[in-house]
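Q:
My hope is that you can spare some time for a protein that puzzles me. I hope you can help me see how the letters and the tokens relate. Thank you; the sequence and its tokens follow:
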Amino acid sequence: MSDERIRTNITLPKYHHDWLKLWAWAKGTGFTTLAGNIVAARVEANRDDIIVMLSYRAAQMGITVDDLIAQILSE
């Protein structure tokens, strides 16, 4: 896992944005820091499921999972 950071934009419903802002304030952390940490934690928690989905799709396409990952990441 790399320590490289990539900035991205996400769209949240105002309701969730407001609750995330309140949560960040209550934790004494920045809004974007907390949002990034939440997304990273969910990706890690679902990594095995993501691999299963990619394996299924790669098999449908007749390519290896590594080739599919390379294709997706090069887009």
